[in-house]
Design goal:
Layout lengths: L7 H32 L3 H26 L5 H18 L6 H29 L3 H29 L8 H17 L14 H14 L1 H31 L4 H20 L1
Length: 268
């Protein structure tokens, strides 16, 4: 699996993904603590709304971004989106009202929703061999799983010496480092494909997904998993700090335990 890291371009892109994921993970912990700081026991409602906004951004922006990814310079697009995410993360520690959280989350997640399909569309051009591409997908999945454990543990350690607002600085550093790594490589031009209209390309993935019975079943399975994950994201900070009276580090460790459980379940 690690053989694909010998490719310098992919290695830099993979490191950019890992660093950005860790930064995003720190922001997830910090956002939960920020919601509790602003709303107290009502933090679950705040986080639930923020999660709904995230999903709206992904459903609305990601297909459009995927359609435009074939036409726009990908390196410029990826770097620009990383800089947008870093700029939004800079503002999060200064939030004083709940509505400000919602606005910034929509901006941050819209940029992330555009970044993800653009990044994914770049990998097969960097690694045209099918075996290498499959290994790259496996590495990417591993990075997502490890982040769910590493980021909360890192956040718990940092919270022993800094306030939760400072965790957003780690998010900013993660996005800036990701942008720097993308700038450091030359990305190949997209492989020419059949020309389709923007509307057709925007909806094509969804149409294929819904037309394939196995993928429809996978959609239902993912929905069930997402429902359980949403409960953890929304309610952990309230349960740990309001119900059990524990501190911020305990919240981060609880999230790490959930991430570890997810990895164990995947292995079993």
């Amino acid at each position: 699996m690690l053989r694909v890291l010998a490719n310098r371009t992919y290695r830099h892109l993979f490191l950019a993904q890992v660093i950005a994921l860790i930064g995003t993970g720190l922001a997830t912990v910090a956002l939960g603590l920020l919601a509790y700081d602003l709303a107290g026991a009502d933090a679950g409602a705040v986080l639930g709304t923020a999660l709904a906004i995230k999903m709206i951004a992904y459903v609305g922006v990601a297909p459009v971004a995927a359609a435009f990814a074939e036409r726009l310079p990908r390196r410029t697009m990826l770097v620009g989106l990383d800089l947008v995410r870093a700029a939004v993360a800079v503002l999060l520690p200064f939030v004083t009202e709940v509505w400000q959280v919602y606005v910034l989350i929509f901006a941050l997640q819209s940029a992330s929703a555009a970044f993800t399909p653009t990044f994914q569309a770049t990998i097969p051009d960097v690694l045209p061999d099918e075996k290498d591409y499959t290994q790259a997908l496996s590495l990417s999945r591993l990075a997502y799983d490890l982040e769910s454990v590493v980021s909360p543990i890192l956040a718990a350690a940092l919270l022993t010496v800094i306030g939760f607002h400072s965790l957003f600085a780690g998010t900013v550093v993660g996005f800036l480092a990701s942008a720097a790594l993308v700038v450091s490589v030359l990305l190949p031009s997209p492989i020419p494909t059949e020309r389709r209209g923007i509307c057709d390309r925007t909806t094509r993935g969804l149409r294929i997904y819904l037309a394939t019975p196995r993928l429809r079943g996978l959609l239902a399975l993912n929905f069930a998993v997402a429902a359980a994950s949403a409960m953890v994201i929304v309610n952990t900070v309230v349960l740990v700090q309001a119900q059990f009276g524990l501190g911020q580090s305990a919240t981060a460790l609880a999230l790490a335990a959930f991430g570890g459980g997810s990895m164990i379940a995947a292995l079993l």
